[in-house]
């Protein structure tokens, strides 16, 4: 038997194998799979020889006459002597066979040339035998492990991660989302393990020749895309829950962490039921399994019926995990289960419309968490956080449309970004608000029913929603969703609406242009958006009405049309557009309107402006000051009201924006003035929230707990009041505990802040103590908190040692955790230059460390984009990128965005540094004297 690794394109003995001349990155369309029968035998007992082998039988319908079968296969050894091809129902007819095979390593194609032509209308069965090593590369079918502390040994499991294009690493297949088929999965493994797949177990029987091995066959799946196929062999424990409608719901984790799965096991079934009501469509499978995987490259993956998670996203411990971690678990479980409809039941035709999966799952997850935990106010907080994220990402010229053309497979992974998720979610929220609840639900239900078990594109969704909108009267009959929404999904960026009021005529003239952070680029002729205009006045204060009173329209040729709004109040009253940030656009007012808004915010009446719009005003004015449309004196006058503010959203908005300035100013001689300015801003809210004392248990509102942690983080960083001494005291008391792994006196809500502050102001012994706690911790969220905090050291040699540890493949830090640690070091006070030097000197070994997850290198580059602000450093980094193309493959988008962000920082330093410093000096001088 001769096995051939496709990537080597080595010649087989019995069949001629050549390099293919077919060089398009998409599969030919002559064939369509109907059903797969996949049998995988996995060997986990011998750590010296982890491997799997299997067979796949594919029933293939012929749509057009053809003489070849083109599949995807990557790093699989296919036994070419055992390939079989037969016509289904073709008894008595002459057989067919494979004459030769070809490979295309660029596109992972395995092409079988048939002896006779395959005829349209016929169905054939293709059988292939294959094998491969069970690697630890976190994609395809791979191995993971955990430590059994009682037995003092390493336990091994296997699991899949196929999205977007890695099913081909596990078995030969048509690995594109449009090729849906039914899957019959059979797993072979040692009987001490459990086998899981998308569907329930049909039968388990002994292996015919290997002692103590079994075959477990699973029921045939519903039609689905290859990227949703999943299976695992493991020795995990589980918590079962049964829904009223009979759906079995199980949550799996390693045995020594199963007690951390309680919350996910309770929350998951609740949100699944909520979606059945929201979509008006019953969950189509008989069971759902969700499993926490020790080594996992993504946060989670929505495989139909077998949802996989990184441990830190699924598992929650009331004793060791913060409320924020609990919220994170709820968000991600809600997101993945939303995919069971949006993505799994109805799947995009091609990755161009990935946002239909991710944007919808992100948005309706907010609805689901809001329904189950209304006290968290998730819908408001997450929706606005999504907007603040995309206001930054999408103001880059190097951003991309939501619906992004994909022209090579490597671009698919790059589309899993803020634009697909957060911007996708934001435009769906906008649509939900202007259509209303009834229309939105009716349109979604129609769409899901029409395309169930099929593939769709965004135009199909627009059609269903337009029909519903016209039926309910929520949209004028001369408007359609496609015209409106295409302006948001098919072009890059978002608009700023410039509002110029005529106070005598009581009108306002509105114009739009694309907002760009890069001030070297002209904004002229940068597109047009259909903008729903909601607004209110100082007298009216009707912020709850988010329905559009007017629309800004575009011409048929895509040009913007200015808009005049009439019957506005007089010159002594402000107006605010975009009630509760109901659509993703910025608003810049004339000087008088800003003056009126600043006066209200800096008075006892500041709460008369809705909390979301207070956040909007902060965000907009700081951005306009950054790009020069507003003076920093105006921006600082506005945000000085924060000394009164007690709500999370305005503070989050302000601190997120100020963090960009902090990264630059901390490296400059004038940081002392900035430090004084921040102290003055933070001190009132810090003292109001009782510092970092343990008051979490007495705070009922979830957002108040988050605010306390956020404020404490800034207070300790800028040495406000007693923050540093309190943090060091907490840490010292922890060190004095006889059993610090069981007893931790540090309040849960501020543990990360306390750890970081203590490491920054502490000794080598403090660092070693915390590192030991990391090694002994059994809760993934606690381990991540510790890893992040260890990067706070001010010792150069400690940071250097830490850098080397995170890229040690045999060390204590898991590969996915390194993507958190490296940015933490790069963002630390003394870590930036060390991390930059380390990356530049070791880019070759780092890229090999993450191979084949090339997108991981994007996470490694990202922190530098926020920290480089001089022409010299920018030019140096640009040269480094140019000289490292071989090690930075397939992340062109991340490189463009990083370099553009650095250039934007350089522009700010050259344009605004002096004026900003002067503005904060004026504010800080009194504070400096008092200190």
Give a verbal description of the structure:
Helix content is 41%, strand content 20%. The chain contains 26 helices and 32 strands. Strands 1, 3, 4, 6, 7, 10, 13, 15 and 16 form a nine-stranded mixed beta sheet that branches. The protein has a five-stranded mixed beta sheet with strand order 18-19-20-22-21. The chain has a four-stranded mixed beta sheet with strand order 2-8-9-5, with no helix packed on it. Helix 17 packs across helix 18 and helix 19 runs antiparallel to helix 20. The N terminus and C terminus are likely disordered. Belongs to the peptidase M1 family.
Strand content: 15-25%
In angstroms, what separates the terminal alpha carbons?
Answer: 82 Å
How many H/I helices?
26
CATH superfamily of the domain at 3-235: tricorn interacting facor f3 domain
Annotated CATH topology of the domain at 3-235: Immunoglobulin-like
For this structure, what is the CATH class of the domain at 3-235?
Mainly Beta
Q: Please describe the biggest sheet, giving its number of strands, its sense, and whether it closes into a barrel.
A: 9 strands, mixed
CATH architecture of the domain at 3-235: Sandwich
The helical percent reads 40-55%
- Shape, principal axes of CA atoms: globular
Mean pLDDT: 93
Structural class: alpha+beta
User: Unreliable stretches, pLDDT < 50, 5 or more residues?
Assistant: 1-14, 926-931
Give a count of the beta strands, DSSP E runs of length 2 or more: 32
């Amino acid at each position: 038997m001769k096995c051939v690794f496709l990537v080597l394109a080595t010649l087989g003995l019995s069949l001629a194998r050549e390099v293919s001349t077919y060089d398009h990155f998409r599969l030919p369309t002559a064939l369509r799979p109907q059903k797969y029968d996949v049998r995988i035998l996995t060997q986990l007992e011998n750590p010296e020889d982890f491997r799997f082998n299997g067979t796949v039988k594919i029933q293939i319908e012929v749509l057009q006459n053809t003489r070849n079968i083109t599949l995807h296969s990557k790093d699989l050894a296919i036994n070419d002597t055992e390939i079989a091809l037969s016509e289904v129902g073709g008894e008595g007819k002459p057989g067919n066979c494979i004459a030769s095979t070809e490979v295309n390593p660029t596109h992972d194609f395995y092409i079988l040339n048939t002896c006779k032509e395959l005829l349209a209308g016929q169905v054939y069965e293709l059988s292939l035998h294959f094998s491969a090593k069970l690697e630890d590369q976190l994609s395809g079918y791979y191995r993971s492990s955990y430590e059994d502390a009682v037995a003092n040994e390493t336990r091994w499991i296997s699991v899949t991660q196929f999205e977007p294009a890695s099913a081909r690493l596990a078995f030969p297949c048509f690995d594109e989302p449009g090729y849906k088929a039914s899957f019959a999965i059979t797993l072979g493994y040692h009987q001490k393990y459990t086998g899981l797949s998308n569907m329930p177990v049909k039968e388990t029987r002994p292996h015919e020749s290997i002692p103590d091995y079994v075959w477990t066959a699973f029921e045939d799946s519903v039609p689905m895309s290859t990227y949703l196929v999943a299976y695992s062999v493991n020795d995990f424990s589980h918590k079962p829950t049964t829904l009223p409608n009979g759906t079995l719901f199980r949550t799996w984790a390693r045995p020594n962490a199963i007690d951390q799965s309680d919350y996910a096991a309770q929350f998951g079934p609740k949100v699944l039921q909520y979606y059945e009501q929201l979509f008006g469509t019953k969950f189509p499978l008989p069971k759902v399994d969700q499993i926490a995987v020790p080594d996992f490259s993504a946060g989670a993956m929505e495989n139909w019926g077998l949802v996989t998670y990184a441990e830190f996203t699924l598992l929650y411990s009331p004793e060791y995990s913060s409320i924020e971690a609990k919220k994170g678990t709820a968000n991600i479980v809600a997101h993945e289960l939303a995919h069971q409809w949006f993505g799994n039941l109805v799947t995009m035709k091609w990755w161009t419309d990935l946002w239909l999966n991710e944007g919808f799952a992100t948005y309706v997850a907010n609805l689901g968490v809001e329904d189950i935990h209304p006290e968290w106010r998730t819908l408001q907080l997450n929706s606005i956080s999504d907007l603040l994220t995309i206001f930054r990402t999408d103001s880059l010229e190097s951003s991309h449309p939501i619906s992004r053309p994909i022209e090579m497979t490597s671009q698919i992974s790059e589309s899993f970004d803020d634009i697909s998720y957060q911007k996708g979610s934001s435009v769906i929220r906008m649509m939900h608000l202007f259509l209303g609840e009834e229309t939105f639900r009716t349109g979604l239900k129609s769409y899901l029913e029409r395309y169930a078990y099929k593939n769709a594109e965004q135009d199909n969704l627009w059609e269903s929603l337009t029909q519903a909108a016209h039926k309910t009267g929520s949209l004028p009959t001369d408007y359609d969703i496609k015209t409106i929404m295409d302006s948001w999904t098919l072009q890059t960026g978002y608009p700023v609406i410039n509002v110029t009021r005529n106070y005598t005529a009581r009108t306002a003239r509105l114009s739009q242009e694309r907002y760009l952070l890069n001030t070297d680029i002209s904004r002229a002729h940068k597109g047009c958006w259909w903008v729903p205009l909601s607004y209110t006045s100082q007298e009216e204060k009707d912020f709850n009405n988010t329905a559009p009173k007017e629309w800004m329209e575009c011409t048929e040729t895509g040009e913007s049309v200015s808009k005049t709004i009439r019957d506005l109040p007089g010159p002594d009253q402000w107006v605010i557009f975009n009630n509760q940030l109901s659509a993703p656009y910025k608003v810049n007012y004339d000087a008088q309107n800003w003056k009126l808004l600043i006066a209200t915010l800096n008075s006892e009446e500041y709460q008369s402006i809705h909390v979301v719009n207070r956040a909007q005003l902060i965000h907009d004015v700081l951005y306009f000051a950054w790009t020069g449309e507003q003076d920093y004196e105006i921006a600082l006058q506005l945000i000085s009201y924060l000394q009164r503010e007690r709500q999370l959203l305005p503070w989050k908005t302000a601190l997120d924006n100020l963090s960009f300035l902090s990264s630059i100013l901390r490296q400059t001689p004038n940081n002392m003035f900035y430090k004084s300015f921040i102290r003055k801003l933070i001190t009132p809210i810090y003292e109001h929230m009782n510092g970092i004392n343990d008051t979490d248990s007495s705070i009922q509102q979830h957002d108040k707990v988050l605010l306390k942690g956020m404020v404490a983080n800034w207070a300790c960083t800028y040495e406000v009041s007693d923050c540093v001494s309190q943090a060091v005291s907490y840490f010292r008391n922890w060190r004095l505990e006889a059993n610090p792994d069981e007893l931790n006196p540090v309040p849960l809500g501020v543990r990360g802040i306390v750890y970081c502050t203590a490491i920054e102001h502490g000794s080598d012994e403090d660092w070693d103590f915390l590192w030991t706690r990391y090694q002994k911790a059994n809760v993934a969220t606690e381990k991540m908190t510790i890893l992040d905090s260890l990067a706070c050291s001010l010792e150069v040699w400690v940071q250097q040692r830490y850098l080397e540890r995170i890229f040690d493949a045999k060390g204590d830090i898991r590969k996915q955790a390194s993507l958190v640690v490296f940015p933490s070091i790069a963002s630390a006070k003394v870590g930036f230059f060390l991390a930059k030097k380390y990356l530049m000197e070791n880019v070759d070994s780092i890229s090999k460390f993450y191979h084949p997850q090339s997108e991981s290198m994007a996470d490694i580059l990202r922190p530098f984009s926020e920290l480089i602000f001089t022409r010299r450093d920018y030019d140096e980094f640009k040269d480094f990128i140019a000289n490292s193309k071989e090690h930075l493959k397939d992340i062109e988008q991340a490189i463009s965005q990083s370099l553009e962000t650095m250039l934007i920082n350089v522009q700010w330093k050259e344009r605004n540094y002096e004026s900003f410093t002067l503005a904060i000096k004026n504010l800080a001088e009194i504070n400096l004297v008092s200190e």
